[in-house]
Amino acid sequence: MVYNKEFAEIDGVKIFIDDIDNYLAESYFLLFNHNKFNEAKLLNYIDQQKRKEYFKILTEAYLCNYNNVIETLSPLKPIVDTDKLLNVTTNRGNNVNMTLKDYLYLHRDWCFYDEGENQIESSVKLIKSYLPSDLQNALFLGCGVGRLSVEFSDIFQKVYSTDKSYSMIWHINKLMSEKSFEFFTPQQKNVYSLQEVAPKHTAFIPDTLKNTINQKVDFFVSDVLNLPLNEMSIDAAFSIYFTDVIALKLWFDKLNNVINKGGYFIHFGPLDYFFSDESEMLTAVEFKTFFEQNGYTTITDQILITSHLNDSNSMCFKVYRNWLFVAKKDA
Ligand SMILES: C[S@@+](CC[C@H](N)C(=O)[O-])C[C@H]1O[C@@H](n2cnc3c(N)ncnc32)[C@H](O)[C@@H]1O
Questions:
Q1: Ligand 1 center to residue 143 CA distance, Å?
Q2: How far apart are alpha carbons 172 and 99 in whole angstroms?
Q3: Separation of CA 47 and ligand 1 centre (Å)
Q4: Ligand 1, atom 24: nearest CA belongs to which residue?
Q5: 260-272 average pLDDT score
Q6: Which residues pair with residue 259 across a beta bridge?
Q7: Pocket of ligand 1 (CB under 6 A)
Q8: Which of 17, 145, 14 lies closest to 25, judged by CA?
Q9: Closest among 57, 55, 35 to 46, alpha carbons compared
Q10: DSSP alpha helices (H): ranges in the chain?
Q11: Confidence of residue 100 (pLDDT cuts 50, 70, 90)
Q12: Which atom of ligand 1 lies nearest, measured to the CA of 165?
């Protein structure tokens, strides 16, 4: 057993967070706020006199996304502590995104479009080429909606896959329990024709992969800063598009504690730092040196260019020079 504490279960989502009341209030707040944004769009579109077809398409998209978020929120509503909700301290400005981040990942991970499959396939293939085949288990940090962890499950007996976001893990459960999940990615600009303004997407997990997940992959909510895992219980820890979310100095010790001697740390991504403290925006070389000074030997340090969260309906997409860094913990 790798877990060192009990979990709470809300609407099928396993949650290993100590202050669960606060966590649920925060999760509710984030999603509720996002839906306020969807609602404002819908209200604004009612009065539009020009470009009626354009606004009709956008209205259908925002309405579906709005109803989706209501569905995610509804099991939380009766259990959220009102006092905690009123005291949520999360930065309000950061909570409203045009499209729920979950949908950008669902689009790449579970809609099986060429652009997403290409990103996944090339990165997974390169990373696997540096890993031995005799490792027992793996941990995926900030796993999003989980496709990458599932793609690695063939080389491990067991995969532990965690994210701090309630909705990311909720969406995986939703796909596991139902045939499909529909959502929209509205984009008011960078589009060629009305057809691309708000395409509807259908995410699904094929039955073969559902079986694999049931047998091998454990998805759960936890914070990398307080992992619910025993010391030296993990053979390979993956930080894919995650290293730049939180400063290394905050999570290195916690993660290092759970990695076995002779185990692996794998980073993949462009070091696109999403926090503001420049003193923690390490270069790749500094990052690698830090690991080497703390008991790891570098296995590889190289770049792979891929598109990122590319949606072929848009005339705009990101290309990343992803840094792949694989290091082995000294025995
Ligand atoms: C850029 S996304 C990458 C998702 C995934 N690795 C992928 O590439 O598909 C970063 C993820 O980290 C999660 N995250 C942020 N802070 C976290 C924390 N403290 N502990 C665990 N996950 C966290 C976010 O919810 C988000 O899903």
A1: 6
A2: 18
A3: 38
A4: 142
A5: 98
A6: 234
A7: 105, 141-144, 148, 163-165, 168, 223-225, 240-242, 245-246
A8: 17
A9: 55
A10: 20-46, 52-73, 82-86, 101-110, 114-128, 147-151, 166-177, 207-216, 248-258, 284-293
A11: confident
A12: 25
Q: CB–CB of 22/84 below 8 Å?
A: yes
Instruction: Give the model confidence (pLDDT) of 74-99 as tens digits.
Output: 999 999 999 999 988 766 554 456 66
Which amino acid, 232? M
Which atom of ligand 1 has the smallest separation from the CA of 225?
A: 19
H-helix segments, 203-275: 207-216, 248-258
Atom of ligand 1 nearest to the CA of 163: 22
| Gyration radius of the chain over CA positions | 20
Q: What is the pLDDT of residues 148-190, one digit of tens each?
A: 999 999 999 999 999 999 999 999 999 999 999 999 999 999 9
Domain boundaries defined on the chain: 8-12+93-329
Q: Phi, psi (5° rounding) for residue 294?
A: -115, 35
Degrees (nearest 5) of the Cα angle 25, 31, 34? 135
Distance 219 CA to ligand 1 centre (A): 13
Task: Evaluate whether the domain defined by 8-12+93-329 bears CATH number 3.40.50.1100.
Answer: no
CA distance 49 to 273: 42
CB–CB of 203/68 below 8 Å? no
Q: Which residue do the tokens 């819908």 mark?
A: 42
